[in-house]
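Write out the bound-state structure for adenosine-5'-diphosphate.
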Amino acid sequence: MTHETWVAVKAELMKRIGKNNFVTWIEPLTFSQLQDGTARFDVPTTFFGDWVNRNYGDHIQSHLRKHGAAVERLEFNVIAAPVMAAPARKAQAASGPKVIRARSAAEDETPGAPLDMRYTFDRFVVGKSNELAHAAARRVAEGGPVSFNPLFLYGGVGLGKTHLMHAIAHELQARQPELRVLYLSAEQFMYRFVQSLRDRSVMDFKSQFRSVDVLMVDDVQFIAGKDSTQEEFFHTFNALVDQNKQIVISADRAPSEIKDLEERIKSRLQCGLVVDIHPTDYELRLGVLQQKAEYYRAQYRGLEIADGVLEFLAHRITTNIRVLEGALTRLFAFASLVGRPISMELTQDCLSDILRASDRKVTIEEIQRRVAEHYNVRLSDIVGPKRLRTIARPRQIAMYLAKQMTPRSLPEIGRRFGGRDHTTIMHGIRRIEELMATDSQLSDDLQMLRRQLQG
Ligand code: ADP
Ligand code: MG
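---
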C-alpha cells in the first residue's frame, strides 16, 4: 500500500463520516506502513488511537481493502509531538474524553461531540416500544422541510435515545454534507457556555450556536436547576426555531416531569413532537441480541452459540438494552478466552451477577415510597386512613402497581396498606384501571413510575 492509497481512502472517509469528524479524527492520522497485514498509523495520544480504532476502525479497514491493501488489523502508535491545542486540553479536563478535539477547531467551526459510528439506523432494531421514535427520527433525518420542532425523545436509560440522535446526524451528514449538524449533550452545552462566560466570548458562543442548521441536545434534564444555562438554552432554542432550523432534544422523562426546568422552556419543548421510548419487550430484546450476535460471530470467527441462549437472555435481562449488550459482549469475550462454545451453562456461569441483579424483585414498600415521592405526599399517608382525594388517588396507584409488579395476593397487599381489606384493594385497582382509559396524564405517570421502579 502506498501513501497515495491512503490519500484516496481519506477522501472517501471524508464523504462517509462528514467533514467535522474527518477533520477531528482522520486528518491527524499519519500513515506509516503496512506490514504483514497490519496497517500502522501515528497518532497524538493513546486515547486518540483508541477512539479512532473503536469508531472508525471498520471503515478505515474496509476502504483500504477496497483499494487492494491486504489489511487485517490496524495499529496506532503514539508519537511524542503534542498536536493538541490548548483549548482542547481544557475541554478534555472538564468534561471527559468525549469532547476531546484533536486540533483546535477553526474559528467558524462549531464544536460538537464526536459521533459513534456504530449508532446508525442500520443497527437500530425497531420494535413496538421504539417504533414511533424511530419513525420520527427517520423523518428528521430526511432533512426535508421541518414538520415538527423540536423532536423531543424521552425514555429511561439505555433505550436508544443517544443512538437515534447519532443516527440522525450520520444520515443528515451523508445526505447533505454541507449541512451544519451539531450534536452535543446538555452538559457539554453548559460547559461551553460557562467557558465562554469565563473567556468573555459569549457573543462567539451565541453566534456559533445560532448558525447551525440542526441542533441536537442530549439529556436535557441535566440543565434543570441551572439558571443561566437554562436561560441561554432558551434563547438559542428560540433563535433557531425562528429561523426554522430543526432541533432534536432528548431527556430521561417528559418535559412536564423535569423538575426545576423553567415553565416557558417546558412549554417550548412541548410545542413539537414529544415521543416516548417505552421499556423494551421480549421481541425487541431478542432482535437486538440477534443483531449483535451477528456482529460478534463475524468478529470472533468460529465461535458457536448454543440454541436457546439468546432467548434465555432476552427473557431474563429486562432492564435495558445497554445491559443486554454488555452481557453479550462479556459472554463472547469470555468464551473466546477460554476457547469454549457459548453453551447455556457457560452463559449462566459467566453472567451470574447480571442474572442475579435482573432477578431483583420490586417490593411493596419501594412502590409506596416512590409513589409518595412522586405525588409529594407522606409515606405514612399512603398507608394511613386519610380519605382526601389528593392522598387517596396516589394510594390507589400504589395498590395498582403493587398488584402489577409484585407476586403478592390482594390480602397480602391489604395488610401492607395499613391492614385494609382485600375488597378495598380490589376497588382501588379497578378505579385506576377505569381512569387510565381516559386520563392520559395518569397513564404517563404510571408508566414512568413503573420504569423508575424497574430501573
Ligand atoms: P440512551 O441514550 O437512551 O440511554 P443509548 O442510545 O446510549 O441509550 O443506547 C444504549 C445502548 O443500547 C447503545 O449501545 C445502543 O446502540 C443500544 N441500543 C439501544 N436501542 C437499540 C436498538 N433499538 N437497536 C440496537 N441497539 C440499541
Ligand atoms: Mg443517552
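---
The longest strand covers residues 30-35.
The pocket of adenosine-5'-diphosphate (ligand 1) is lined by residues 119, 123-125, 130, 155, 157-163, 288, 321-322, 325 (CB under 6 Å).
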